[in-house]
Amino acid sequence: MGSIPYEGGTTFRVWAPHARAVGVAGSFNGWSAGDSPLASDGDSGYWSADVAGAGDGDEYRFVIGSDDVERWRNDPYAREVTSSAGNAIVSDGLFDWGTAAYESPRWGELVIYELHVGTFNDVPGGGPGSFHAVANRLEYLHDLGVNAIELMPSAEFATDFSWGYNPSCIFAIESAYGGPDALKELVRRAHEMGMAVFFDVVYNHFGPSDLDLWQFDGWSERGKGGVYFYNDGRSQTPWGDTRPDYGREEVRHFIADNARMWLEEFRMDGLRWDATAWIRNVYGNIGDPFNDLPDGWRLMQQITGDTDDRQPWKLHIAEDLRDDPAITSPVAEGGAGFDAQWDGAFVHPVRGVLIPWSDGGRNMWALRDAIARGDGVAAERRVIYTESHDEVANGKARVPEDISPGDAGSLWARKRSTVGAAIVFTSPGIPMIFQGQEILEDQWFRDEDPIDWTKLETFAGIHAMYRDLIRLRRNWFDTTRGLRGSHVHVHHVNDDDNVIAYHRWAEGGPRDDVVVVVNLANRPYGSYRIGLPRSGRWTLRFNSDWTGYGADFDGHPSFDALADGGPQDDMAWSGCVDIGRYAALIFSQDS
Predict the structure, then answer these.
(1) Same fold, 2-89 and 107-206+248-343+375-392+417-473
(2) Are 130 and 137 in contact (CB under 8 A)?
(3) Is 320 left (phi over 0), alpha (psi -120 to 50) or beta?
(4) Whose C-alpha in 40, 200, 429, 560 is 20 to 30 A from the C-alpha of 574?
(5) DSSP secondary-structure letter at 234?
(6) How wide is the angle at C-alpha 545 spanned by C-alphas 544 and 547, nearest 5°?
(7) Is CATH 1.10.730.10 correct for 481-588?
(8) Is 481 strand, coil or helix?
(9) What is d(CA 329, CA 337) in angstroms, rounded to the nearest whole number?
(10) What's the CATH code, domain 2-89?
(11) How far, in Å, CA of 270 to CA of 285, rounded?
């Protein structure tokens, strides 16, 4: 589909089932509407032609005749465009990927860094950031310890500043970010560092502006969008009446081809699907069969199943946020086949215990449930976080700002937000942070407000804490293997004193069993006894109250713990710990 260059010319192919005639006009024929007609492939609705002299870099548009009206349309499959309202560009897709060996990180070892290309490494007051600018900070991310970046949508969208969730050309790469070669270069450089790249796709709606797919070949019903869209009440979404018609085989192929392009042509390690609830239900509901979209469910199964057949190591992540286990159930069992989904049942209870000013407002049992729900097979099925682009946008603040409005750098904001980070990196699931979280970025996310990288110096201690937590999560020192495991037992919950403790493990034993203790009270505790799974000495690996993370932190003296007591908290042994106010401790054994 689209434009396929060959030696001496280019093949053009487009689906326009209601057209009476189709041509292609471009820089290769003086933009003549009639010099390069396409032939109908019969009743299929496809049109195609080989055009001699057209080649890589030529601009073009399809000219679709119907109802005595001539419509100049961009190529739905264009890999490159001059702009969202401009022309398609013939692209040969050639790129030197180099020879460096690369293997995607195992899912249980992932630490994801979500970023927005336009604001991640931008110069304030200028144009949006670019793929090249992101690539220039890959060394920083590698040093931080993350091994996966998740790019917010970067398919061509209207205007140069956007979150990206308004795609006008889903196959084209945003021109303001640098286009397809710049994106491939970013992926290549990330892979050379051993970092995965996930790409955010939007299949629940298109546009709604700068959308040449709208009434593409002239046909429509009820004033709706034509062949690519539902033409009845199923078209409506919160973002416009532009839900694709998943019931049309050609539209499903269009979207499935797009998913395969990202995974194979651009070598993405996986896709994060935006708002899948609105692919499977008109109103994004669960338990609402009257408004379900079975064809949308079938589309998701088609794409996840195709990836499992062709590249099973690649990850499909759903943003469904309805706590529906069917999303990550296998296709063979009727599920949607996703490998993981964002866990709304984690982020909200965790933020709920971090943000209240009064210690009496913290529900440690809700925190217990948020952590414990990841036990067993579900551990790799959920992505867990305290900040994402949705959680810190449209007036919703970042966690430190929510804790201390107007003073996100306060002691309380730094202490409690970093306890939240410790919970994320020590709970079962795939941990994710949002850009700037590791340097205490305080502004709510906007597409014209770049990250303030001066905070890297201002909050160097916070950055160091995130780096240390990530390295423990990834078991860099072979002392915390259990943090990559699938098991958790939240064995100690003290709702009166706001203390919780949990045990993480993979196989169990020294350097595998990990015990995490969290104090969300504005007071330290000495000789606080908790259950421990094994006898002997438990070495303190991390203390969030260390003054190296903040000169004004208390530096409460915390030490190794000795399992010298009898059973407690459903554990065979117990021992005492010393923990500062609003602090987290991580223990494991050497032998």
Answers:
(1) no
(2) no
(3) alpha
(4) 429
(5) G
(6) 115
(7) no
(8) helix
(9) 5
(10) 2.60.40.10
(11) 26
Q: Do 279 and 324 form a contact (C-beta atoms < 8 A)?
A: no
- Taking the CA atoms of residue 221, residue 225, residue 227 and residue 231 in that order, the dihedral angle to the nearest 10 degrees is -50
104 secondary structure, DSSP code: P
Going 520 to 521 to 524 to 529, the CA torsion angle's sign is: negative
> Looking at the domain 107-206+248-343+375-392+417-473, which fold is it?
TIM Barrel (3.20.20)
Structure tokens at 566: 């009898």
Pair of tokens at residue 48: 């195609």
C-alpha angle with apex 285: 214 to 263, nearest 5 degrees? 55
β-strands 196-201, 148-151 pairing: parallel
- Residue 337 neighbours by CB distance under 10 Å: 24
pLDDT in tens, the chain (591 residues): 999 999 999 999 999 999 999 999 999 999 999 999 999 998 899 999 999 999 999 999 999 998 888 999 999 999 999 999 999 999 999 999 999 899 999 999 999 999 999 999 987 778 899 999 999 999 999 999 999 999 999 999 999 999 999 999 999 999 999 999 999 999 999 999 999 999 999 999 999 999 999 999 999 999 999 999 999 999 999 999 999 999 999 999 999 999 999 999 999 999 999 999 999 999 999 999 999 999 999 999 999 999 999 999 999 999 999 999 999 999 999 999 999 999 999 999 999 999 999 999 999 999 999 999 988 877 889 999 999 999 999 888 999 999 999 999 999 999 999 999 999 999 999 999 999 999 999 988 998 889 999 999 999 999 999 999 999 999 999 999 999 999 999 999 999 999 999 999 999 999 999 999 999 999 999 999 999 999 999 999 999 999 999 999 999 999 999 999 999 999 999 999 999 999 999 999 998
Q: What are the extents of the domains in the chain?
A: 2-89, 107-206+248-343+375-392+417-473, 481-588
